[in-house]
Amino acid sequence: MKYLDEFQNPELARRLLDDIRATVTRPWALMEVCGGQTHTIIRHGIDQLLPEEIELIHGPGCPVCVTPLAVIDKALEIAARPDVIFCSFGDMLRVPGTDRDLFRVRSEGGDVRVVYSPLDALKIAQQNPEREVVFFGIGFETTAPPNAMTVYQARKLGIRNFSMLVSHVRVPPAIEAIMTSPSCRVQAFLAAGHVCSVMGMDEYPELADRFRVPIVVTGFEPLDILEGIRRTVRQLERGEHTVDNAYPRAVRADGNPAARAMLADVFEVTDRSWRGIGTIPASGWRLSERYRDYDAEHRFSVEGIATREPAACRSGEVLQGLIKPHECEAFGTTCTPRNPLGATMVSSEGACAAYFLYRRLGSTPTPLEATPVV
Ligand code: SF4
């Protein structure tokens, strides 16, 4: 069916795989940045279908997973206040904080609500003028524009009982941090297509040049991933390192100018801590001075929170591509999607959840013939 399976065609997948096999002559390590791409790769067994010379390293592109523990704990503290209606996308409710999660806060009487858009939270604020309504605004360049627009609307409409707890992150500084890490093995990147559909591609040529790595903007369907890998391997084998767009049906060179303008108006770049990784300079956004009144951290002055990560969780190593999820001792035993120790097991885009969901319980690959492409 058009739009549903046209990018999952097995015959085209075989042709792309043949092309990759014919091109590769030596080992290469590629990082897919986005957790959505990781799920496509694991779900369809793409990593197992590739020639053994190609290793796919899963990157830190799961927004829920990289939201720092301190911000989760701030969310929990704000959500527990009796005058607050705390609104969030559903996948944040089970992310463990230091000693509880948002589901626990709700079971203890907190007014925690799942919304499908930040504008729903703004509507709740209009309907409840006597309560403070807080939206949990997290994620990459993809979720930032609607969140920026919501704060813009709140200010324009004079809705004073709305605020946002912001923890937005940006991909290019993360690529820089990965490439400057002493343990880095990454030789090329599959960049996240949806991020580039907003931001365009002009942040990447300098990175490709400085670190001499191909960066190929890649989509999310199986054929998108294979085409991204094919183009990446071709560059690596030729000794090239350019930015290439393998997702032209969604990505333009300048991205979405209206969304970028909204981001520039509402947010300003700031240093940001990434869960399991640490602080990366200039890797996040916060509300700019003009919109600071809508910043929940300022409104509720939640400072001085002491955080404690579970000792058994190795999600930081997973997020940096240093280990695969099944190499964590807790994987599938004390840590499962039902009882997650870390955010990478909670989120629908987390690598640990993908490995558990699609039964990657060990390092032994299943026979290629037995692994369906679609
Ligand atoms: S399997 Fe669980 S404990 Fe291990 S790294 Fe993943 S989330 Fe953390």
The amount of helix comes to 25-40%
Low-confidence stretches: 364-374
Discrete helix count: 17
Quaternary state, please?
Answer: single chain
Largest sheet features:
6 strands, mixed
CATH class placement of the largest domain: Alpha Beta
* Name of the CATH architecture of the largest domain: 3-Layer(aba) Sandwich
What structural class is derived from the secondary structure elements? Answer: alpha/beta
Mean pLDDT: 92
Beta strands, count? 11
Radius of gyration using CA atoms only: 21 Å
Run of helices and strands = HEHHEHHEHEHEHEHEHHEHEHEEHHHH
Family: Belongs to the HypD family.
GO biological process, one term: protein maturation
GO molecular function: 4 iron, 4 sulfur cluster binding; carbon monoxide binding; iron ion binding
Protein name: Hydrogenase formation protein HypD
What does this protein structure show overall?
The protein is of the alpha/beta class and 374 residues long. It has three domains: 2-62 and 182-191 and 202-245, Rossmann fold, CATH 3.40.50.11750; 65-170 and 255-300, HypD, alpha/beta domain 2 (Rossmann fold, 3-Layer(aba) Sandwich), CATH 3.40.50.11740; 315-357, no CATH class. Helix content is 39%, strand content 19%. It is built from 17 helices and eleven strands. It has helices spanning 10-23, 35-43, 46-49, 63-66, 69-79, 102-107, 118-127, 144-157, 171-180, 193-199, 205-211, 222-238, 257-266, 296-300, 315-319, 343-346, 351-357, and strands at residues 28-34, 54-61, 84-88, 111-114, 132-139, 162-169, 188-192, 215-218, 243-245, 267-274, 278-287. Strands 4-3-5-6-11-10 form a six-stranded mixed sheet, with helices on both faces. Strands 2-1-7-8-9 form a five-stranded parallel sheet, sandwiched between helices. α1 packs parallel to α12 and α8 packs across α13. The longest helix has 17 residues, at 222-238. The protein is globular, with a radius of gyration of 21 Å. Residues 312-315, 318, 325, 328, 330-331, 335, 340-342, 344-345, 352 line the site of iron/sulfur cluster.
